[in-house]
Design goal:
Elements: E1 3-9, E2 26-30, E3 35-38, H1 48-51, E4 55-57, H2 63-66, E5 77-80, H3 81-86, E6 95-98, E7 104-106, E8 109-117, E9 125-131, E10 134-138, E11 144-145, H4 148-152, E12 157-161, E13 169-171, E14 178-180, H5 183-193, E15 197-201, H6 205-208, H7 212-225, E16 230-233, E17 239-242
Parallel strand pairs: 3-4, 4-5, 5-6, 10-12, 12-15, 15-16
Antiparallel strand pairs: 1-2, 1-17, 2-3, 7-8, 8-9, 8-11, 9-10, 13-14
């Protein structure tokens, strides 16, 4: 059973944008029973009619992931209680509550949320999406996944945080870590958990403003050092089929 993914946007919360990385990170998952939009940042405000999603799933309440919903949504929106608190003022009619580790079905996909460390003000989750024996884990902003082994077990692909390649963007302004772990570390996670393919979205300035060929070679080298077969940087409009 195939699961199709189209990257609607791949840019992080940065000012820089290019033809390949123009819109805030978002992806459209489908398997023939409908279209599930993953995240809806402020770049998508007023543009949902062009996507026509059947449902929207939100990872957390930061502007580049949820503020495209400021004027409401044309379909059910799924989010955790923390995210609903962050966007409580948005006029969304059909609000669905996501509880980490409680599986649910939407547009033919089985969805399971896993708690992350990323932000204290906007707590985030990553989503494991499955169709039959095919599973993909989507996590565009992350310091670490609290139940990583269970989240990535048997996954066909990992779609992760491209904010930085080698340099850590993890900080500890208070008692808890926040920020973004580099691609290098996420590739190590994939290798440890046996995930054969990794794709990186939510791209930071290094990737968006850099030489795509050189950076692609660097990331492939990091992947090959860890025994991964396939790794790539996503760009707006990229379409993949996992089966």
């Amino acid at each position: 059973m195939a699961m199709d993914v189209r990257f609607l946007g791949t840019r992080g919360y940065i000012d820089l944008k290019t033809r390949l990385h123009r819109r805030h990170a978002s992806a459209l998952f489908s398997c023939g029973q409908g279209k599930l939009m993953m995240d809806c940042g402020e770049d998508w405000l007023g543009r949902l009619a062009t996507i026509k999603p059947d449902a929207i799933l939100i990872t957390h309440g930061h502007p580049d992931h949820a503020f495209g919903l400021k004027r409401g949504a044309p379909c059910p929106v799924y989010a955790t209680s923390e995210t609903w608190q962050n966007i409580a003022a948005f006029p969304i009619d059909d609000r669905r509550l996501v509880i980490p580790r409680d599986r649910f079905r939407v547009v033919g996909l089985t969805v399971e949320a896993f708690a992350l460390v990323h932000s204290t003000r906007a707590p985030a989750v990553g989503y494991r999406l499955s169709r039959g024996k095919v599973s993909v884990f989507y996590v565009p902003d992350v310091v670490y996944i609290k139940e990583r082994r269970e989240a990535l077990l048997g996954c066909r692909a990992y779609i992760g945080d491209g904010a930085t390649i080698i340099r850590s963007m993890v900080r500890k302004p208070g008692t808890e870590l926040i920020g973004h772990v580099p691609i290098r570390t996420q590739l190590t996670w994939c290798a440890k958990e046996g995930v054969p393919e990794a794709v990186f979205t939510h791209c930071g300035t290094q990737i968006v403003g850099g030489d795509a060929r050189r950076l692609g070679a660097l990331i492939r080298s990091l992947a090959h050092q860890r025994g991964l077969v396939d790794v790539r940087i996503a760009h707006d409009g990229m379409a993949l089929a996992f089966e």
